[in-house]
């Protein structure tokens, strides 16, 4: 069921699990502290202070355990073990989106800001733009994105959005270039053009949906799925606290064949 959803739609939501809620209840105060710390704020606030990015900010162990807290468990852990073997999580990103996201502060170009607003800054993780021309190369490809909401939020509060089924289009585009090249050279291959073409195709052909989940629920996003963060709508609740999510993006053994093909 979960595997089918990931294969077909590029994401799957796991229903409420007491084990996940225990984890969230333990992590939430620490995450809030991280996002309020002045040094962290200076380092991670972007877009006119409307997004605290917090990459790898949570100092959890490979089982997701923070200090003496519980490891990450529940149905999602079982699924990850079945598909990827032993759990080996990275340090979680603590992402907090605030009302007004994305505010224009002059850091982005006008074009980039418009893309952020109109297209939710849609992207595929694991491709780093390099240089002033923002050429795209494979960089830190991961196994999946696991999102764990740390606060409640409604649909207007900048949800993650995903173009359903986009992983098929992105995979086919990458394979059209990478399958003809030896794997040792993959990270040096400029994927900019096929990536941009595939992204345009996803916008035309795939349905954009918003992922809404509560603390205790969680979701997995396919490593090749096109996704982004929607702008904050005025009517959103939770207005002063922001919407806080922990994201794991483990790289596993970095096997690029699995990244491109894999079991899903
Ligand atoms: Fe992303």
Short description:
This protein has eight helices and twelve strands.
- The name of the CATH topology is Jelly Rolls
Low-pLDDT sequence parts: none
| Main sheet record | 7 strands, antiparallel
CATH top level assignment: Mainly Beta
Strand order across the biggest sheet?
A: 1-10-7-12-4-3-2
Hetero compounds: fe (ii) ion
The number of helices is: 8
User: What is the arithmetic mean of pLDDT?
Assistant: 94
Rough shape? Answer: globular
CATH architecture: Sandwich
Query: How do the helices and strands follow one another from N- to C-terminus?
Result: HEHHEEHEHEEEEHHEEEEH
Number of strands: 12
Strand content: 15-25%
When the domains are counted, the total is 1
Structural class: alpha+beta
The share of residues in helices is 25-40%
Global Rg: 18 Å
Distance between the termini: 12 Å
Q: Which key features would you list for this structure?
A:
single chain, 264 residues, alpha+beta, Jelly Rolls, seven-stranded antiparallel beta sheet, 8 helices, 19% strand, globular, binds fe (ii) ion
Topology:
Blueprint: H1 2-9, E1 11-14, H2 18-36, H3 38-44, E2 45-46, E3 51-52, H4 75-84, E4 93-97, H5 110-119, E5 127-130, E6 135-138, E7 144-149, E8 160-163, H6 166-178, H7 192-205, E9 208-211, E10 218-222, E11 227-229, E12 243-248, H8 256-260
Antiparallel strand pairs: 1-10, 2-3, 3-4, 4-12, 5-6, 7-10, 7-12, 8-9, 8-11
Helix pairs in contact: 6-7
This protein binds fe (ii) ion (FE2).
